[in-house]
Design goal:
Oligomer: heterodimer
Helix content of chain A: 25-40%
Shape of chain A: globular
Largest sheet of chain A: 7 strands, mixed
CATH architecture of the largest domain in chain A: 3-Layer(aba) Sandwich
Number of strands of chain A: 15
Structural class of chain A: alpha/beta
Radius of gyration of chain A: 20 Å
Strand content of chain A: 15-25%
Strand order of the largest sheet of chain A: 4-3-5-6-8-7-13
CATH topology of chain B: Rossmann fold
CATH superfamily of the largest domain in chain A: Thiamin diphosphate (ThDP)-binding fold, Pyr/PP domains
Strand content of chain B: 5-15%
Number of strands of chain B: 7
Shape of chain B: globular
Order of helices and strands of chain A: EEHEHEHEHHEHEHEHEEEHEEHEHEHH
Helix content of chain B: 40-55%
CATH topology of the largest domain in chain A: Rossmann fold
Distance between the termini of chain A: 55 Å
């Protein structure tokens, strides 16, 4: 099986995010026969985004399992496999379908180690595509991270760049605890980047300062970190210096990078696609207010989705729900001017 | 619905010694059950769960389990099964007293036993959540070609209403996994009777829908239970796929020390089922068959009481987990909680 690439050099390849996930899974399957992929349509169809295309031919139906349509047991069976020594990678076809497996993730996977006092562990990766901007309507575009980030015992990553996808997916697969691996659908083919060759990991829980700046700290992740970066770069021409942090990991969260940045810029704007109320930004705001209130020169601001159940299918409804580089640039200008 | 009972004594290949082991397990279950309730009434433990009425079923099923090979995915009313596969009364008491030396460090509710060394999977109180875990473990056994191993997965009748129960049986059947699903049907799910749980009350018949063998047996008879579970486990271990078993029994006690069953069922009903109590029944059979004398029975009861007392005293004397243990085993390694 050849991993599709548009460009290749000796030490890195240019890939989009789909290709990065696919290449990482492929290498993992080749290197460790404890790894099993299970989910809906991951076998013969090769996943709805073709991430696991042809894997079943090379690795067989015992390792690439087309499951019945039953999300609770996709995760639950993976938990049992993990408790019994395998390294399952469960796929939830769309993050919107993860709700039936909520108990298995929150009540079981995240608590296996804790409730057994370390006798049993649950080294499990749950991959799922999330996010909007693809005309996915109510049930193919949600962000689910805030529903899970409340839960100790679980790790959550949401990489935005192909190199981070590979490094964090490798880290998630190697991790001895359950990891929810969130892949933004809109970035799947939109975002391309250089991906180093060979096996490497990026530590879960480390943010990445994408662009340094002095007047404002912007914390984001997923699709929106690309738009935030675009907006911040556009503002450079007007002499605005905005620091952009890609959170990459949502739990554990990199407090140090956020606090160091805020200490320098003295202003914080959090941008995410998920709802504002109870979102990741709420926790970051509270943390910065507790730890660094007197370093702030402006109120913390959150640019997030409105408090409505979901984005609609109609273009107007999706557009209203989603942010944009322009809306982000406006908020950045206002924050710097404050 | 009446619980079917057999009168003819059949030993189904069990030796005298194994038959006495079955009986001892049943006595020990009842003694430990009572002890949990006593300790609760004495104010020494906040909670206890009983499995009275399940003794024969669990002793028989445990006898079919192969220690060191098979895995057990139990639920919270499986004291006797856990004893039967290798947990000691002391370990049971550590769980009841929530002591540091308990397998789960005093974290879990009583009766939520787990022990990796004994092959007992860890489970929560969310019903049916452990069924897919058992299936995943069976998948791992099959994937690694570990023939001669199987998973024994148990639950009560109420749990069969859960979606994950259905999902798990379906998956196990699709993959012909080495697993036995044993339903301990005691006719009550806390206060909800079987007729409100399901319109078709013979759970074993659902096996047809999944494409696996199904069987109902008298769970008040430890020997019949043993034979049924053994047959199913042997089929599982040798590549024959999963089986759905339904053992009929009755819950003699309230759901737990926090439940008053007289608010939803009658004393007459309980008394009626008590007439079939498997413990004195099996005792009479063993004596009648000359496998134990009445003196043997008395000596065994005394020994079980002694063992229970010793386990109680020894566990009670052990320390609670330390307050700082709250922070361990969140993830691998040290964890600095998000402040």
């Amino acid at each position: 099986m050849a991993v599709t690439t548009s460009k290749m050099t000796a030490s890195s390849q240019t890939m989009n995010n789909v290709e990065a996930v696919r290449a990482t899974l492929y290498e993992a399957l080749k290197n460790d026969d404890r790894i099993i992929i299970l989910g809906e349509d991951v076998g013969a169809r090769g996943n709805v985004f073709l991430i696991t295309k042809d894997f079943i031919d090379e690795f067989g139906p015992q390792r690439i399992i087309d499951t019945p349509i039953a999300e609770a047991s996709i995760v639950g069976i993976a938990v049992g496999m993990a408790m019994e020594g395998l390294r399952p990678i469960a796929e939830i076809q769309f993050a919107d379908f993860i709700y039936p497996s909520f108990n298995q993730i929150v009540g079981e996977a995240a608590k296996t180690r804790y409730r057994s006092n370390g006798e049993y562990t649950c080294p499990l990766v749950i991959r799922t595509p999330y996010g909007g901007g693809v005309r996915g309507a109510l049930s193919h575009s949600v962000s689910v991270e805030a529903l899970f980030y409340h839960v100790p015992g679980l790790k959550i990553v949401a990489p935005a760049f192909p190199a981070d996808v590979k490094g964090l997916l490798n880290a998630a697969i190697d991790d001895p605890d359950p990891v929810l691996f969130l892949e933004h659908k809109k970035t799947y083919r939109l975002i391309k980047g250089e991906v180093p060759s060979g096996h490497y990991t990026i530590p879960i829980g480390k943010a990445n300062v994408l662009k340094e700046g002095t007047q404002l700290s912007v914390v984001s992740y997923g699709l929106y970190v690309h738009w935030a970066l675009e907006a911040a770069r556009a503002l450079e021409g007007d002499g605005l210096s905005v620091e952009v942090i890609d959170l990459r990991s949502i739990r554990p969260m990199d407090r140090t990078t956020i606090l160091n940045s805020v200490e320098k810029t003295r202003k914080l704007l959090i941008i995410h696609e998920d709802n504002k109320f109870g979102g990741i930004g709420a926790e970051i705001s509270a943390m910065v207010a507790e730890e660094a209130l007197f370093n702030l020169d402006a109120p913390i601001r959150r640019l997030c989705a409105p408090d409505v159940p979901a984005m609609g299918y109609a273009e107007t409804l999706e557009h209203e729900f989603m942010s944009s580089p322009e809306k982000m640039a406006k908020a950045m200008r206002e924050m710097v001017a404050f | 619905m009446a619980v079917r009972t057999t009168t003819a004594f059949e030993r189904r290949g069990l030796s005298d010694e194994q038959l006495r082991q079955l009986f001892r397990n049943m006595l020990l279950q009842r003694q430990l059950d009572n002890r949990g309730f006593q300790l609760n009434r004495q104010g020494k433990v906040p909670f206890a769960l009983g499995s009275e009425g399940h003794e024969a079923l669990q002793a028989g099923a445990a006898m079919a389990f192969e220690r060191g090979k098979d895995l057990l995915a139990p639920y919270y009313r499986d004291l006797g099964l856990c004893l039967g596969v290798g947990l000691t009364p002391y370990e049971i008491m550590l769980s009841i007293f929530a002591r540091e030396a308990d397998h789960n460090g005093g974290r879990q509710f009583p009766n939520h036993y787990s022990s990796k060394a004994t092959g007992i999977l860890s489970f929560s109180s969310v019903l049916a959540a452990h069924i897919p875990h058992a299936v995943g473990a069976a998948y791992a056994i099959q994937y690694r070609n570990e023939s001669g191993r199987a998973v024994l997965c148990t639950n009560g009748d109420g749990t069969t209403s859960e979606g994950e129960w259905h999902e798990s049986l379906n998956f196990a059947a699709v993959h012909k996994l080495p697993i036995v699903f044993l339903v301990e049907n005691n006719l009550w799910a806390i206060s909800t009777p079987i007729e409100k749980q399901m319109a078709q009350p013979e759970i074993w018949k659902r096996a047809v829908g999944y494409g696996m063998p199904g069987k109902r047996f008298n769970g008040f008879d430890p020997v019949e239970t043993y034979a049924c579970v053994k047959e199913a486990l042997e089929r599982a271990r040798s590549g024959g796929g999963p089986t759905l078993l339904e053992g009929m029994c009755y819950r003699f006690l309230a759901h737990s020390t926090d439940d008053n069953d007289m608010t939803y069922r009658t004393k007459d009903e309980v008394t009626e089922h008590r007439k079939s109590d498997p413990v004195p029944r099996f005792e009479a059979k063993l004596v009648e068959a000359g496998i134990m004398s009445e003196a043997d029975v008395a000596a065994m009861k005394k020994d079980v009481l002694r063992e229970t007392n010793e386990a109680t005293d020894r566990a009670e004397a052990m320390p609670f987990p330390k307050a700082e243990d709250l922070y361990t085993h969140v993830y691998e390694g040290a964890w600095q909680p998000w402040q």
